[in-house]
Specification:
The structure is a homodimer.
Chain A: H1 5-13, E1 22-24, E2 31-33, E3 40-49, H2 60-78, E4 81-91, H3 96-113, E5 117-124, E6 128-137, E7 153-157, H4 162-170, H5 178-189, H6 195-204, E8 208-211, H7 216-227, E9 230-233, H8 242-250, H9 255-264, E10 271-275, E11 285-292, E12 296-298
Parallel strand pairs in A: 4-5, 9-12
Antiparallel strand pairs in A: 1-2, 3-6, 4-6, 7-10, 7-11, 8-10, 9-11
Amino acid sequence: MPPSEFTLIYRYFSALGRGAAVDLSVGDDCAILRLAPGERLAASVDTVVEGVHFPADSFPEDIGYRAVAVAASDLAAVGARPLGMTLALTLPEADEFWLHSFSQGVAAAVSEYELPLVGGDTTRGPLAVTVQVLGALPADRALLRDGAQSGDAVYVSGTLGDAAAALAFLNGTWQPPAAAGEYLLQRFHRPRARIALGRELLERGATAAIDISDGLLADAGHIARASGVKICIEPDRLPLSPALRTGVTQAGVSREQVLRWALAGGDDYELCFCLPPTQPAPADCTCIGRVEDGSGLDWGNDAGIDIDAGYQHF
Amino acid sequence: MPPSEFTLIYRYFSALGRGAAVDLSVGDDCAILRLAPGERLAASVDTVVEGVHFPADSFPEDIGYRAVAVAASDLAAVGARPLGMTLALTLPEADEFWLHSFSQGVAAAVSEYELPLVGGDTTRGPLAVTVQVLGALPADRALLRDGAQSGDAVYVSGTLGDAAAALAFLNGTWQPPAAAGEYLLQRFHRPRARIALGRELLERGATAAIDISDGLLADAGHIARASGVKICIEPDRLPLSPALRTGVTQAGVSREQVLRWALAGGDDYELCFCLPPTQPAPADCTCIGRVEDGSGLDWGNDAGIDIDAGYQHF
């Protein structure tokens, strides 16, 4: 008889449930967590499905890491301090090798984001991973989408377009040089939730923020709409990784294609945010434009780049 | 072009996000909730998958209600006050009729349990519903599994075995009289999370509690193990619904089969709990046995009833 659900869960996940805010972890009907006096709770949920959000042949370790990072990215986007998470895992079979490898990826993310795994559910079915993240916010503020002001500078963290380029590589539509390809795949499979940056932005009075999951244009568009402003983006200022720039110089990818990845490609999980113009740029962040009166986005779309803006799940 | 994910979600779910503890609901990167001063957070997650946890031809309205009730039952089991929930919905296609009906069931549960829907994610894939519930507990107590004391009385709420009998009816292995069958199906498709009872038990100093999802024997066994005690159950005292008793008298089901459903059938989502012997029985609850020194369960298993104890997902 294969090991029972309970045995497997305890074996692989019970060590991941400890944390400063955790009074009770996996093993009773609910987990119990403590917030500091006056803090509020931030909560978000994300599901990743095999063949939809990651290729069917992804390493289980990458699937585990990425599922947590993608969800934790929403805590980063509001500036929350991670408290803990629950994980609902749907699996076609209780494959011990798979679970072991998957749990290694989850463990790496738990450790990196200080996000203990306090509850879970395992069910049989087609592979899907749902992570709900729980975080703490001060009583009086949060990084939301609706506070951008005319005159603010618009920033993004890190570099853009890497994950979209990695997907094109995985799909066989382009062939980057080997080292660049490895870097891009790593960016797709191991996105970083920008937790520390989010908390810094909350302290520094950023007026609006969002994590770039659906593509810069789609996500900056959410800020513009929620804030009732126009966001102007200068495509020449978009931060590109050396691996992506290599694509233009060595692998025959057009500059237009690279811009398309950077503007409309999702899955980078960098932060896009607005700061009053008096604030200096945070480390590893690039000013890509400004907020103006008006509505919608202006990204030089008269330059003739054809963009299919924004990921649609349906 | 079909309506986008965002349009559908907003249309069907955005009205369900209001609540006394909700500062920010669906529409930003995280929801933001307030706990009262000194309260702790209770969190739990449950996934239901079509064909595993409910029949493939279930009404979408029942699927929605049941997914929330099953998750909310874990809040009841620890005595928590509901704060809100997130819902991760994986759907094969964005079927408007289905979503409308499903949302009606979710709305009924949101209203009944005062559990606003504050966040969600919709993905394409085989039908699965993951609900994470969030609740509030006092700083100094919770209904856990590990406090049962020798001498305590053991109770269950409501009646047992109804959901298991309903599944046997759905599988065609027995045919109850029509009215009884309808009642039993309702018990399976519309289980009630015992939120008010859980909060009453927390006030009254219940020493241990669990919700009966996997069957009385499996779940009472969790209490016995966590508390380091023996739990003695008298099968003759198990509360049976009139519909189930009708099975014995009119539909040719053996008393042994009915006991098997009541002892080992899951999905009833009643509470099993332990009270000091000086406490009177709460309304709609039945004393079914007592806690003794020792370990394990004693349910008269020398009476020759063959029980396959406890649901295993794998």
